[in-house]
Amino acid sequence: MSKFSKYRLLLTLAAAVLLLDQATKLWVVNTLPYEGAFFPPESIEVIPGFFNIVWVTNTGAAWSMFSGHIWPLTAVGFLALGLLFFFRKALELHLPKIQLSYGLIIGGIIGNMIDRIRIQKVIDFLDFHYGDYYFPSFNIADSGITVGVALYIIFSFRSNEKTPEEIQKENEEAVFNAAENSGDEAESSDSLEENAPSNPLKQEDKA
């Protein structure tokens, strides 16, 4: 088992969310005109009176919070990814259900970070409304983050009892880590032997 294979589900979901997010944004940019952040000149009506496809942008986070703070928000994204990597063992990222939630979150974070770095704003296009009330437009990356956080909360409130599949996976991880550690110890031992004096008796005679 390679170091990356145990995070296969997380990496697959993150890549899927990222690709879907960037592909849909590219389609929107090539399909609809753009005349400002909040007032799309045209839209594609998907469900009359409820759901449209638009092209708007956001220089902040969700619901336009912290608007105009592109680079601080980008730095927060990098920090979040770094913390997830650093605390991956404490977060139990080897468990499938945890990989499910964090895969969606990571894919969403990277998707919006690419927008902020590339065009200094985030492209939103999913527009839900009811009557005169319009829910803030969002994108696939936002959806991944929201669903991922919701799943993590649900999993946190569930019983701590582990399924047979999770127990088996943990046992496999333990065997893999033990083999890896023993290999490191063997390499260290070989290195010590190579650095040892070739003829210690002669050195004692000289002394």
Could you walk me through the main structural features you see in this protein, from its secondary elements to its overall organization?
The structure is a single chain. This protein has 207 residues and is an alpha+beta fold. It has one domain. 59% of the residues lie in helices and 11% in strands. The protein has six helices and four strands. A four-stranded antiparallel β-sheet has the order 1-2-3-4. Strand 3 and strand 4 form a beta hairpin. Helix 1 runs parallel beside helix 3 and helix 3 packs antiparallel against helix 4. The protein starts with 7 loop residues before the first helix and ends with a helix. The model has no long low-confidence stretch (mean pLDDT 82). Pathway: Protein modification; lipoprotein biosynthesis (signal peptide cleavage). One of its GO terms (molecular function) is aspartic-type endopeptidase activity. Belongs to the peptidase A8 family.
